[in-house]
Amino acid sequence: KQEVTQIPAALSVPEGENLVLNCSFTDSAIYNLQWFRQDPGKGLTSLLLIQSSQREQTSGRLNASLDKSSGRSTLYIAASQPGDSATYLCAVRAGGSYIPTFGRGTSLIVHP
Amino acid sequence: EAQVTQNPRYLITVTGKKLTVTCSQNMNHEYMSWYRQDPGLGLRQIYYSMNVEVTDKGDVPEGYKVSRKEKRNFPLILESPSPNQTSLYFCASSFSDRGYYGYTFGSGTRLTVV
Fold first, then answer.
1. What is the distance between the alpha carbons of residues B109 and B114, in angstroms, rounded to a whole number?
2. What pLDDT does B97 receive?
3. Phi–psi pair at B97, nearest 5 degrees
4. A59-63, long-range: CB within 8 Å, 24+ apart, which pairs?
5. Distance CA A73, CA B101 (A)
6. Residue A74's beta-bridge partner residues?
7. What is the distance between the alpha carbons of residues B35 and B46, in angstroms, rounded to a whole number?
8. What SS3 class is residue B85?
9. Spatial CA neighbour of B46 closest among B89, B13, B110
């Protein structure tokens, strides 16, 4: 059964820092991996979707990479801002299943 | 605008009073799913549907029912709500082509059962 782990569980940084959030998964036979942002009490907003054939995706200050062989994905946030404060979740869509597996998320606080 | 719409956003109800949370998507997605999110437990899948009239249990289906009579709608039914069903609920949808599509989530329904 696919397991998804996100490290760290929580992170507090000063504004302006470059950040790396990690997502690891146990079964490398995946179709895609999706990163979401969730503000407190709100829904999940899709940030980036990486297909299994891709190595990375970029959107603005966000860059997500995928290394299937090692079962890892990283979300890089450049020049962090207080508005980036949220919980970031990764979801893996594994081969042979329509059902995504979610990590528990990384709670990020960027303070001024 | 492509979206998943849940209603209501907030609901307070009493134990045992049947309720329905609606979910509708306008993207012609085959796959729809319900999740609950609780502190420390993450997202847990309740039920999912691969297409019209095709539903299956997720990880925590007890106390819930669903139906998929139309492609766009996937209501979540609590026949006799209990306080342990107090949670934040999300509906999600996607195309069923596994290789190329991600998921779209609704804004959530905060349910309190007293």
1. 16
2. 67
3. -70, 105
4. A62/A35
5. 18
6. A22, A65
7. 5
8. helix
9. B89
Q: Which residues pair with A61 in a beta bridge?
A: none
> Hunting for tokens 């891709």 — which residue is that?
A54
Copy the structure tokens of residue B4.
């998943």
Please tell me which of the candidates B48, B90, B101 has its beta carbon nearest to residue A99.
B48
| pLDDT in single tens digits along all 112 residues of chain A | 889 999 999 999 999 999 999 999 999 888 899 999 999 888 999 999 999 999 999 999 999 999 999 999 999 999 999 999 999 999 998 776 778 899 999 999 999 9
Q: Which of B40, B27, B33 is nearest to A107 (CA)?
A: B40
Query: Is B52 in the A-facing interface, judged by CB distances under 8 Å?
Result: no
Among chain B residues, CA nearest to A32: B99
- Please name which of A39, A23, A4 lies closest in space to residue A76, comparing C-alpha atoms: A23
Selecting from B45, B108, B110 the residue whose C-beta is nearest the C-beta of A99 gives B45
pLDDT 10s digits, B5-38: 999 999 999 999 999 999 999 999 999 999 999 9
Cα–Cα dist A66/A105, whole Å? 17
pLDDT band at B100 (very low <50, low <70, confident <90, very high): low
User: For residue B110, is pLDDT > 90?
Assistant: yes
Distance from CA of B106 to the nearest CA of A (A): 6
Residues paired with B78 in a beta bridge: B19
**The tokens of A39 are what?**
């503000």
